[in-house]
Amino acid sequence: MRLGRGINFGNALDARGEGEPGLRLEERYFDEVARAGFDTVRLPVRWSAHAAETPPYRIDPAFFDRVDRAVNGALRRGLNVVINVHHYDEVCADPDQHEARFLALWRQIAPRYADHSEPLCFELLNEPRDRMTPERWNGLAAKALAVVRESNQDRTVLIGPARMNDIDALAQLDLPRDDHVMATVHYYAPFAFTHQGAGWVKGADAWLGTRWGDDTDRAAVSHDLTTAAAWASEHGLPLFLGEFGAFSKAHAASRVEWTAFVRSEAERLGMSWAYWDFGTDFGAFDPDLDSWREPLRQALIPG
Predict the structure, then answer these.
(1) CB 173 within 8 A of CB 192
(2) Half-sphere exposure in the Cβ direction for 104 (13 Å, CA)
(3) Catalytic positions, please?
(4) Could you report the per-residue pLDDT of 207-258, keeping only the tens digit for each?
(5) Is 250 in contact with 197 (CB distance < 8 Å)?
(6) Which of 179, 167, 195 is nearest to 265 (CA)?
């Protein structure tokens, strides 16, 4: 399944806590995305914040309803949808303690959407890291995929490498044999450019004013994405660039240039992609003005 051009609805269903700043997800935003020419929405979901801590780890029905509304709203607009397990930090910090709960989440999510059409895809876990080593993640991903296959034999399932879906970790990703698996990576290089001024990154204010766009900068991006594409080709897998973006405090013209170049290189190399994000701190859309930030939209969907 090819996902084409996509965008993430970050900081909405994956908000780290109730009442935290984020995006109020409105169904009309899917109209904006479809009209702009996107093919796919990626819906990061923090299921772990809405599930019981003890077996059978039941997901809150009201939260399931919220996710349903988003999934169905996007599908009604003819958009592909990727839903994932996002911000499950605890399973990365202590995989042994949280493995059963992680698998129990998928044992509920997968049957819930088993009757949905193929444009809906699953992504097992966003950015495995910390104690979720490549070896540990390869084993857990195989178990989670087996859980999904109990109810969704042909559903497209996305799996990325450990070390936060980093391209350099692809070599350590060992995927189960499955005709309906797609690999995914994230790309935020160079980090001092894409995350300049980001409040959650220590020392990021020192990077403010960093620019991007000379021949060396472009060659580095081309090298990185070509490495990812070569790995995918060698393994006979489609590749989804599930996140890329530059923080709002980045130098504006460089930010647009970087976004356009990463997008064009991804497409040249045959990748589908999803920009991070729709309407918050990396946003291509301004919810306050109810309009696209046109230079970013043009960088993503030219013409």
Answers:
(1) no
(2) 17
(3) 127, 243
(4) 999 999 999 999 999 999 999 999 999 999 999 999 999 999 999 999 999 9
(5) yes
(6) 167
